[in-house]
Amino acid sequence: MSSLTAPSNLSSYAGYDVVQRESGTSIKGKTKISKKGNRYIRNALYFPAMVACRYNPVLKENYLRIIQKKTSKMIGQVAIQRKLLALMYTLWKNDTEFIEN
User: Fold this and answer.
1) Residue 20: which H helix or E strand, with range?
2) Per-residue pLDDT tens for 3-58?
């Protein structure tokens, strides 16, 4: 498994992969997360993502950029949850500690 696909596989396992609702060839619906993955991972990342959106400057900037374009703030929350999951996997895989700057 290459290092580029491993975080995306993990996000898919957790149910953070994006699916698009389609009906036929011309009607396209909204995109959403699949929620077919492990719900316990998504539940465990909910409050850490809320704290990260408020206090981590890099993730806060990313969150604010996302919610400016979207109708719901939950879309930004889910994006930060997915980012945190990828960050945790990378830190674990490389056996390193998180250094903020």
Assistant:
1) strand 18-23
2) 556 778 888 888 888 887 777 666 677 777 888 888 899 999 999 999 999 999 99
How far is it, in rounded angstroms, from Cα 81 to Cα 52? 9
Task: Tell me how far apart the alpha carbons of residues 78 and 45 are, in angstroms, rounded to a whole number.
Answer: 9
Both tokens assigned to 81: 């949850």
| Domain extents in the chain | 6-94
Residue type, 71: T
Cα dihedral 27, 33, 39, 41 in deg (nearest 10): 170
Any idea which residue has 């580029």 for tokens?
4
- For the record, the structure tokens of 83 come out as 């980012």
Each residue's pLDDT tens digit, 59-98: 999 999 999 988 889 999 999 999 999 999 999 999 999 8
Whose tokens are 């809320």? That residue is 50
